Amino acid sequence: MSSASQSGSSDAGNEDLDHRDSASLSTASVFRSNLKAIGVMTVAVALQVFGAVLLKAIADHRVDWRPAILGVGVAAVLGLNLVRLGVWGMAHRRFRLSSTVPLSSLFYPAMLFVALAYGDQIGIRQVLGAVLITSGTLWLSVKVAA
């Protein structure tokens, strides 16, 4: 009887270990999934920023006498946006929206840095707007996750 009770207690112990292992595995898989979501959304935001920079470069140069350059530039921007749309669609199908949507708000501070790099004037309203959008989105995502 003692061997049966030992066997029963060891089975209960194994169930606890199995439960802990599955919990740690699920935590690890959620972490890996979040890292993948960060990577995919970083690519999507980078494509969006690059498209905006390319449009700015086209607009800054006088291309009215070179319609072919204007056409190639606009086609390149459209192509970038189609690729970005595909990346976003894949991200939103594969990952939770609570992981991907907050990361998309990184576009606004990224564009502030692009504007600084080009020497454009940035006022307090632009900075506050980017901070409010990004912090509000991040706050909502933390609230949803909790």
Short key terms for the protein model shown above:
single chain; 146 residues; mainly alpha; 5 helices; 88% helix; flat
Description of the molecule:
Residues 7-21 have low confidence and may be disordered. By secondary structure, this protein is mostly helical. It has one domain. Helix 1 packs antiparallel against helix 2 (67-94) and helix 3 (97-104) packs antiparallel against helix 5. It contains five helices and no strands. Helices cover 88% and strands 0% of the residues.
Number of strands: 0
The end-to-end distance, rounded to whole angstroms, is 47 Å
Q: Please write the string of helix (H) and strand (E) elements.
A: HHHHH
Q: Point out poorly predicted stretches.
A: 7-21
Seen as an oligomer or otherwise, the chain set is: single chain
Question: Can you count the helices?
Answer: 5
Strand content: under 5%
Shape: flat
- Rg result: 25 Å
Percentage of helical residues?
over 70%
